[in-house]
């Protein structure tokens, strides 16, 4: 699990550290790390252009230029604001033979030191025009300029980084936006209590049967999904639960025939009242929002076991707030909205996806999994994680139905709801990557790759 800290926290940690280390030493450590990664990317080629802004980010770039000059690299620098360029960095750069130029030219690598932690808004027009003229790969210092450091928001021109070299700790931009390959350079910063975390493969403890387990002890997942119009959602959600757990899966709803045909190992009933005992319910995929679905959701919320409410169940909760009353507040609930469903429930997501998910988690006393290119999971106690997997292969119809089934299986298996949502989001993207293998894959293919994803997770 890697921590991520907001810029204000990073700045204050840096200030504390600067008070006890020799002046300029942090910047030189940071810049040395940038130069090291630049040399690796250059792999023998010899021309670099620095884009230098008005603050310490530009100072890092100038010092990196100094270290690169000492390794014999030809380095030119464009000063976006010559009067405010970092004075010591600039004089070191000049001393080492660096040249000040007006155009990017045709370098092998460009180093983006336009703006770092103090960035606000997109690239300004002069910087945007320069970046537009770059044809070489870009190494971003700390973060790609033009992307908001705390939210990853892109609201205008920005730098598309091949690689980002950052210092001390990860900031939200590295988790929420595309920064290319991100490398962390140790400058001695040791912040505590991250604002949120990134899950890594090695963090995921998938529940598997122990020597004395049987089909019941591993947790029975109940799925209340699908309708005459959308039986496929039930097939995908139930199938995902079947494949994600060795425990039993019960299905209750109007798609029982389709489920029996595809998943003979499930126990199927037409109605929720005949379903039998389960340790967690999945509700919502493809159910529609009619009055019978309303009744199903109410029964599930009253059942006193963890519930994952997806798709139409979220819309129903938004439309009929009295449904919340059916829920025992101590019973865990996981909500898995995409942006439009989130808006129905809690208002617009806005630019800060982590803050939005966190606020909704507190308001609804539920784990909120906000779907997106980077999925955010927030718990009512304030914990939050971002799924660092960056593939877009899961962006296909039916993919959310599969995710709901995986979460349900993990909840039934006793995984704590916040982690159940995080593990499921991770396994979901991994399954999509494995199934896609470079070509588009339908949700049913994603679902079938769940065992391969779990195997890969358990091997790491
Ligand atoms: N502290 C430390 O110990 C260490 C810090 N380190 C480094 O310092 C960096 C932070 O430096 P920083 O705080 O000096 O500000 P920085 O991000 O360079 O911005 C400078 C100025 O740019 C401007 N500007 C704002 N938005 C803009 C935009 N969209 N487009 C264009 N310009 C924009 C705005 O000035 P304005 O023009 O508004 O007056 C702003 O004040 C950090 O990221 C890391 O690289 C490392 O050396 C490790 C040790
Ligand atoms: K930068």
TrEMBL record:
PROSITE patterns associated with the record: YJEF_C_2, YJEF_C_3, YJEF_N
One Pfam family cited in the UniProt record for this chain: Carb_kinase
CDD domains: YXKO-related
Binding site for K(+): 57, 112, 145
Residues that hold (6S)-NADPHX according to the record: 56-60, 116-122, 142, 233, 286, 338, 401
Co-factor(s): K(+); Mg(2+)
Limits of the YjeF C-terminal domain: 198-457
Keywords: ATP-binding, Isomerase, Lyase, Metal-binding, Multifunctional enzyme, NAD, NADP, Nucleotide-binding, Potassium
UniProt catalytic activity: (6S)-NADPHX + ADP = AMP + phosphate + NADPH + H(+); (6R)-NADHX = (6S)-NADHX; (6S)-NADHX + ADP = AMP + phosphate + NADH + H(+); (6R)-NADPHX = (6S)-NADPHX
Binding site for AMP: 371-375, 400
Note on how the cofactor is bound: Binds 1 potassium ion per subunit.
EC number: 4.2.1.136, 5.1.99.6
Residues in YjeF N-terminal domain copies: 10-195
Purpose: Bifunctional enzyme that catalyzes the epimerization of the S- and R-forms of NAD(P)HX and the dehydration of the S-form of NAD(P)HX at the expense of ADP, which is converted to AMP. This allows the repair of both epimers of NAD(P)HX, a damaged form of NAD(P)H that is a result of enzymatic or heat-dependent hydration.
NCBIfam families the record matches: yjeF_cterm, yjeF_nterm
Subunit structure: Homotetramer.
Family to which the UniProt record says this protein belongs: In the C-terminal section; belongs to the NnrD/CARKD family. Belongs to the NnrD/CARKD family.
Name this polypeptide is given: Bifunctional NAD(P)H-hydrate repair enzyme
Organism in which the protein naturally occurs: Lentzea roselyniae
